[in-house]
Design brief:
Elements: H1 8-13, E1 17-20, E2 32-33, E3 39-40, H2 45-56, E4 60-64, H3 70-79, E5 83-85, H4 91-102, E6 109-113, H5 119-124, E7 127-130, H6 136-139, E8 144-145, H7 154-165, H8 169-174
Parallel strand pairs: 1-4, 1-6, 4-5, 6-7, 7-8
Antiparallel strand pairs: 2-3
Helix pairs in contact: 2-7
Length: 179
Amino acid sequence: MAKAVTTLAAKLKRIEVLAMDVDGTLTDGSIQLAESGEEIKGFHSRDGIGLKLWKLAGRESAFITARHSKAVTRRAGEVGVRDVILGSADKANTLRSLCARRGVTLEQVAFMGDDLQDLSAMLIAGLSIAVADAPPEVRDRVDLVTKARGGQAAVREAIETLLKAQGKFTAAVNHFLPK
């Protein structure tokens, strides 16, 4: 029996959780170290508003990164990201564990990343998203590629695409408008 083909529109509609890599997805991929050894990361403010829109629409998000960084934990708190998994050596298994904790299926989760270490999670997620500057080995294997590069509001672009497909974009935006 042939496997049913799921359209991109159908995949977009069923996403409840957006999980994402950090370096190269939420940031431009550069890793800056202070003399103290602490990492310094630059996050795009529009990605933060996008994550807030996602939460206002009743959806959840997660950061899954191989690195350890206090900046990532702090940013997650600022934008309402509930799950922050640092030091993940196997993002596919981390994503499976996240689904089990959240009570959602892999089909209900999108994974967004930028490089080879993200492919294992991208390929098992219900929707895979890559940033525009991901290498071709990644871009050629995913469902959706953003126009924006990592760290340049690519996450916001993905969230708007998801919310528009789900019919939730306007209601989420209305939370920012005067009453």
